[in-house]
Amino acid sequence: MFGLASRKGSIAPSANTDLVLWDPKKDITITNSVV
Question: Looking at the 3D structure of the chain, how many domains does it have?
Fold first, then answer.
């Protein structure tokens, strides 16, 4: 759709993907060194 099929929704080099790993038991502070 709109020429984005190869760039959206896949985990691959040069793809635009949002990926979340969540552990409800772990606390983490996001800093520049973590990103």
Answer: 1
Instruction: Look at residue 16 and give its three-state secondary structure.
Output: strand
The model's pTM: 0.30
Amino acid found at 19: L
What CA–CA distance (Å, rounded) separates 15 from 9?
8
- Dump pLDDT digits (tens) for 1-35: 566 666 666 777 777 777 788 899 999 888 888 77
CA nearest neighbour of 21 among 31, 30, 12, 8 = 30
Residue 35's domain comprises 1-35
